Amino acid sequence: MSVVETNVATTGAMATGANSPAAAESWQPSILAFACHWCTYSGADLAGLNRMEYPANVRLLRVPCSGRVNPQYVLSALGKGADGVLVCGCHPGDCHYVSGNYYAKRRLMAFKRLLEFTGLEPGRFQVRWISGSEAGKFRDTVTRVCEEVRALGPLTTDQRQALADPVLAGAAATTQAGEAQ
Amino acid sequence: MSRIGVIVCHCGSNIAATVDVEQVVQVAKTLPHVAYAADNKYTCSDQGQQAIKEAIVEHRLDRIVIGSCSPRMHELTFRKMLSQTDINPYMLEIANLREQCSWVHKNKAEGTAKAIDLIKMAVAKCDRDQPLFTMSIPVNKRALVIGGGIAGMQAALDIADAGYPVTLVEKEPSLGGKMVMLDKTFPTMDCSACICTPKMADVGSHPNITVKSLAEVEQISGYVGNFEVTIRERAKYIDYSLCTGCGLCETKCPTKTPSSFEQGLGLRKAIYKPFAQAVPGKPTIDAEHCRKLTTGKCGVCEKVCPLGAIRYDDTDKVTAETYGAIVVAIGYQLIDWGSIYGEYGGGRYADVISGLQFERLVNASGPTEGHVVRPSDGQEPKSVVIVKCVGSRDPEHGRSYCSRACCMYGAKHAHQYLDKVPDGRCYVFYMDVRTPGKGYDEFYMNTQHDGALYLRGRVSKIYQQNGKLICQGEDTLSGQQVTVEADMVVLETAMVPANDADRLGSMLGITRDKDLWLSEAHPKLRPVETNSAGIYLAGTCQGPKDIPDSVAQASAAAMKVAVLFAHDELESNAMIASSDVALCNGCGACVSICPYSAITLEEITLRENSKKVTRRISKVNPGLCQGCGACTVACRPGAMDLRGFSDEQIMREVDALCQW
Amino acid sequence: MSDSQSIQASLRSRAAELLASDQVAELIGWGAGRFPDQTTPLFITQADQAEGLVYSEYCQNTLGKYAITELSELVADQGKLAICVRGCESRGINRMLKDNQIERDRLYLLGIPCSGMKNRQSGELLSKCMNCSHKNPVIYDELLGETVAEGEPDRFGAVCALEECDRASREQYFDAAFDRCIRCYACREVCPVCTCRECFVDQHEVGWQGKQGNTTENRFYSLTRAFHISDRCVECGECERACPMGLPLMVLNRKLVKDLDDLFQAGEAGLDAVAVNSLGTYDVADVEEFM
Amino acid sequence: MSDTMRYAYFPGCSAAGTSIPYTLSAGFIAKKIGLELVEIPDWNCCGTSAALVTDRDLAVALPARSLAIAEHNAATAGLDVATPCAGCFASLKSARDYAASSEQRRARVEAMIGESYSATADVFSFLELMAQEAAATAIEQAIQDAALTLAGLKVACYYGCALVRPASICRFDDNENPQSMDRLVALTGAEPVEWAFKTECCGASHQMTEPAAARQLIERIFVDAAANGAELIATACPLCMLNLDLRLAEVNKRRQEAGQTTFDIPVFYFTELLGLCMGGGVRQLGIDRHFHPAEPQAKRLRTLQQLAEEQAAREAAEAAEAARQRDVRKEEAARKKSEAAADAVPAAAGQGTVADEKEVHA
After folding, report:
1. What part of B 77-116 touches A (C-beta under 8 Å)?
2. Do residues B206 and B320 both lie within one domain?
3. Which CATH entry fits the domain spanning A28-170: 3.30.420, 1.10.3470, 3.90.640, 3.40.50?
4. Which pLDDT does position A165 carry in this prediction?
5. Rounded-to-integer distance, Cα D187 and Cα C286, Å
6. How far apart (Å, rounded) are the C-alpha atoms in residues B99 and B115?
7. Chains with at least 3 CB pairs less than 8 angstroms from chain A
8. Which residue does chain C place closest to A75, by CA atoms?
């Protein structure tokens, strides 16, 4: 994906320069949330209908079912600049497709344990079941996830370091771009 | 290279109040492949849609991103709009700027920033949109009904009356199921045979219904509108085209064996009709007991048959046919109480009988011609104990659920016994009395007035002493231990799924619950549909119920079939999974994971590296796939992908959001 | 005569018989390498080549995966493919059978009980053999030699030790490891479970794997591969042995094996060719960690 | 199950007191079949009667202590535990299951008894132990060797409450209609009867507090045994034995007063019956120590030869009787015939013939 410079570069939460000390105070985490179309996405819509406020740091990515969420998306997002990832689906037993969330549960449980084993803070990758009627739970969940990730601070990745470092930025494609902290 | 049009909607002030729409449009213009970006006051209005159509022509757009309300609101509206243009309706992405942005964030700067990100994601995804097409699936307007009990017969009759051909498959020699074994039906006490056998006759003579008795469904493949079904009709050893059902063979047959229709209380011949009004009204030979077929000696029926209809060399007939819809009505069976209730004698006492056996005992055409007598000695029982919830509501021994009909037929049995043996005494042990239904509670109260003594408690032990059955139990209302000496005990046993339920369920892709009842698609709103499109449930195969409920569900299932058959063609889902032949290594991980049995492994031969190669690959049936995408993650080789939510599209969205 | 010598003798004689009788068209075993005690995979098609077969304590290569490529080259009716299988190879074979990558009736499996292989230079037991849970093959057509006693392997010792560490040290440990990775993909090449026709790293259109050689991308590769094989890993340890940079790959694999067993009673993979993949099924009563 | 027939032996309080015949007869059998019982040193009360109702912890700690001693003592280490008493069996096995069910529980038990306890050894009642294949085969052999039989004796096998219930703890036999004792008793040639009170409560625990209720419970058992033709009751529990044997006189007394029939149904330990058939003497097995005289039933013991002779004699008598009846019938027919021929009147002849035929048929 090509990098797009916009004339409002500073407005996007994702575009916040996270590494300068000055920015640290106003730092906003970027959180990607996968939401299944039938439950969580409609729960989020319901939160909208009820005008429930929650932090603007969360962007929802609609998928048909939590069973569609490939753990590789999560890993990729965390590697490319998301500070936290949330995966949401129907409660077990309520899946529109009968069983998708059961498979998701197994996969993501094992994957979450693997990520945490290799050093990821547990707060950065979370999974929650939120039904279409649980607008309140949706608001509370994203609010809490935001707070937890904010407390953890920015997730350091090679891409970020490369962009923050003018020398490295020029040689972003070279190997050994710097060790993660 | 794609030419994307981006339209950002104000939604009056709904979006514009907290999102700087103008700024969003300006950013959108700078995004790659965006050829046009504009705002609109009300995009969903006629004028708004017209403006998009014009922009498509003017700017040669080939795909559209709309930043507006939730796609759950207007995705279909805008797809419909695109179908009136040259653009495929699936070349559309919607950024949810209202429900998930303007309505929930008050800070305009934050809202605008998020709106920009959402538009970026939508543009990135849209850039990889592919034209998608629905398939039209022809509908074979022929229905298959599995099971010829009251539910199956009702469904078959309703579908046939709607003008569609129906094949009804029954595994027993006759239609009628459990209902035709019953003596009378509660609460009206009309004779069960009197209301059931006319239905059987109607089914047997309906021009649109083909009855296959002694038959079972062996294999099913295909999908809604196009089920390929293999049916095995077991050998009857009689040429039904010649047989007139005169019954001479049955009179002369020398072999007798216990009758399953009479619940083992009576005998039948080896060539037999299970009961007088059986449909088809022609006999079959029971190969297991027929002397001719087991020892080669006898042949009496062949000698006496005036029409020469006996065929000792008859074999099973296997036929394969195509049906558009299937109604499953395989009913229930009674729990095998003997193997789990040792405290009730475990089947050792002849006079401890099941409710269904009692039905045959009181039936005028039953083995005792309706005289209530003890199976052990033929004496009239002067005291009878009825035990309810045998196997129901008993997670320790049997099942945890309530079988729903037993309270009523227990009351019916008490009433019938007291009617036939006026000087008899009848005790009913119960846990609760559940009589919801028209006239049900009145019936139960009348039974008490008849003299049935209801004791609230379970029976803990039944044993025989000096020719009596001693029933020990507790009357929990008085808190006392009670012992009742009975001449006969009737156990009102739990309904459990038919033996075939699990096999048939897995073959048809119907989920089973913890007790193996077949599961409906939604417990409230889709009570007769299953998760497999075109397959419906009727009667007790879905869960215990009484006759009126079974009939009502059967008619509902028939209506669903009629609605389906009102269309000549069905439109398949466009956003379905598909497997890339080049990548698929045939491991089959997707096959077992699919909840709709939509994926199969197929062997294909193709040229690879100028060599002919035969290998297995997975194939998605577009009529069955519902587009959940569970298979795509199970596919490690990345061969399986979901149209409309492809890996590439989702990864582009992730990239768009994360990279700066 | 030592155990391995007697196995070598019977391997040579059986190989010659099988090849001479045309029962098998090709046999995969080990032959002498260029250095003393070194062995290398050997592919023979003639009975007189059987004398070249070597079986010693230094047969470090796991042969199972060669079955796929060799079978695709063999014409089906020419005869079977014979292959030497120890515990590790046999479990890989089962896994490949389960994944429909090879056909059982085209294989002739020469089972070899194995007490572990040694490093040619140091003479020490190979680390992949140290916590072997199946020293005897779990599937074979004939067994060469006597079965050996199974030990009491500590399969998850290293995993447990790391689990005990705090998060920061684990992050440091794995970052250092991923930093070393040169993405040569040797781990993938030798793995009996990595049977994709095109690896995700090569699927450029989708863009799973970035091109940069940095810790983040290396982590993406290693963790994705570990997850891909999670419910199938037969713990042969060949990936770790093949890694030129010494990445602790088996720790990642065994972490998943351990968790899948703890959570879903997945058990060990490759003990037969029919067991269901633990991530390819579910139980409504599965533990819940995500309310 | 132990590989050899060697067990750590927990005698329980009744072994040297109220159930001496059980101890004697089981000991006799053990010697005959090579069953080795190594007594656990310093064993203590199993807690079944008193502890269970007062303190759950105590109910676990008491039996667990004895089991732990068995583990630590060199002579009994590694052996499964055997106990004659059903109550001891239930307490020991419950405590063992409790400790084995989780690490926390085991640690709790260890803390209570102040020593380590691994809860690995299983617990067997004498009944289960002897019903196991190896023991049962040895018993069968010993009976064959002795060439003795109790043939013709009808026995109601009474298991009581604790040997097969709760099923989750006992994990032995069918808890509604158990068969293990029936099979063992059948080895003696005696005939186990089908009856309904195999696992009903004998009421022993109510004897002190609710004697009237207990008496009813006892009486029901004898009533059903008698109704099914049993001549004696066999049991595997010292408490059942004591309760039934001791109180039968009381039951009979009340029945006599009420004008009902009384019962001469003595109660035996199943081991006494087995012991008799292995050649044990009445005194050697303790059969003379019962409250209700049991010797008459014990005297039904015969050698196989006697049985064969009796059978032969019976068959001969039956054959003689059949022959005699045949002769009688022949004579009768001949007499009738000659009578009919003597006063032959044409009109009555037909009637006479019909009547003759009828009589012959009858």
Report:
1. 96, 98-101, 103-107, 109-114, 116
2. yes
3. 3.40.50
4. 61
5. 50
6. 11
7. B, C
8. C220
DSSP assignments along D94-153, one per residue: HHHHHHHH-HHHHHHHHHHHTS-----S-EEEHHHHHHSHHHHHHHHHHHHHHTEE-TT-
Q: Distance between CA C155 and CA B466 in Å, rounded?
A: 66
| Spatial separation of the C-alpha atoms in residues B636 and B632, rounded to whole Å | 8
CA gap D112, D126 in Å, rounded: 28
Which residue among C100, C198, C228 places its CB closest to the CB of B583?
C198
CA distance D71 to chain B (A): 35
What predicted TM-score, i.e. pTM, was given to this entire model? 0.69
The amino acid occupying position B522 is H
- For chain C, how many structural domains are there in total? 2
**CB within 8 Å: B638 and C279:** no
Give the three-state DSSP class for A97. Answer: coil
- In tens, the pLDDT along D133-186 reads 999 999 999 999 999 999 999 999 999 988 898 888 888 898 888 999 999 999
Residue D244 CB neighbours (<10 A): 28
Same domain, B45 and B154: no
What's the pLDDT score for residue A7?
A: 37
Domain shared by C181 and C69, yes or no: no
Residue ranges, chain D, pLDDT below 70: 1-3, 343-362
The reply to whether residue C206 touches residue B648, judged by beta carbons under 8 angstroms, is yes
Mean of pLDDT values over B92-107: 96
Could you give the residue ranges of the DSSP H alpha helices within B131-229?
150-161, 192-205
Confidence of residue B116 (pLDDT cuts 50, 70, 90): very high
* Lowest mean pLDDT, pick from A152-166, B117-131, B527-541: A152-166
Locate the chain B residue with the closest alpha carbon to C225: B636
Query: Band of the pLDDT at A171, cuts 50, 70, 90?
Result: very low
Cβ neighbours of residue A98 closer than 8 Å, sequence gap 6 or more: B511, B531, B595
Chains A, B: CB contacts within 8 A come to: 169
- Domain contains C286: no
Is the pLDDT confidence value at B260 over 70?
yes
- Specify the pLDDT at position A13: 40
What pLDDT does residue D251 have? 94
Same domain, B561 and B636: no
pLDDT in tens, C31-59: 999 998 999 999 999 999 999 999 999 99
The domain of B431 spans 333-496
Of D176, D224, D227, the CB nearest to B342: D176
Do B376 and B424 fall within a single domain?
Answer: yes
Nearest CA in chain A to B106: A53
Q: How far is CA B575 from CA A64, C61, D270, D297, in A?
A: 10, 46, 75, 86
Please give the pLDDT value at position D233: 96
Residues C164, C106, single domain; the answer is no
Could you identify the residue written with the tokens 């996270």?
A18
Give me the interface pTM, i.e. the ipTM: 0.62
- Residue B218 has which token pair? 């062996």
Neighbours of chain D (3+ CB pairs under 8 A): B
Q: Which token pair is C155?
A: 């399969």
Q: Is residue B226 part of a domain?
A: yes
Q: In this predicted structure, what is the pLDDT of residue A20? A: 46
Last residue of a domain, one of C143, C173, C201: C143
Pairing outcome for strands C24-32 and C39-44? antiparallel
The whole-number pLDDT of residue D104 equals 87
- Give all chains having 3 or more CB-to-CB distances under 8 Å with chain C: A, B
Q: Which pLDDT does position A24 carry in this prediction?
A: 53
Rounded to an integer, what distance in angstroms lies between the CA atom of residue D66 and that of residue D42? 8
Q: What is the pLDDT of residue B242?
A: 94
Which residue of chain B comes nearest to D225, CA vs CA? Answer: B465
Range of the domain at C40: 3-143
∠B136-B140-B142 over CA atoms, to 5°? Answer: 155
C69 and C93 co-located in one domain:
yes
